[in-house]
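pasting for the record
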Amino acid sequence: MNKIALIFLSFWFSLNVFSQGNRVDVEERYRSQKIAFLTDKMQLTPDEAEKFWPLYRSLEARKDDLAVEMRNYRATFPENEQDLSEAQARKLLEFHSKHLTQMSKLLQEYQGKFLSVISAKKLLLLNDAESEFRKHLLREFKGRGANHTPR
């Protein structure tokens, strides 16, 4: 499963985890929890955090834009891959390949930006921390799902 799908899933799960309250509150709680979790795991100093988080939010927004672009393009084709013509399948594969290239270039661009404000070691910790955060959300979601009582 690619990273974009995992990010989308973790966000979707977090929305369900915090299903009480309005959407803005839910998104804010998700962001706050993620920032606290990643800041702790990466051991960011206050000065590093102040410089890092605007860059991170910018990267996330650009990754979201790419994901929306991919979803919108994919929606122009039949849902079931079995129903695609050979020409459609080729177009979809070409677009997917271009999308992955764009994502790779974006990550390379931001790697340089991140390295100007945090150490390489802390940047490596980011990947592990993001993965841990997704697992944390899934555990929390599963835990709440077992105890969830419908209204």
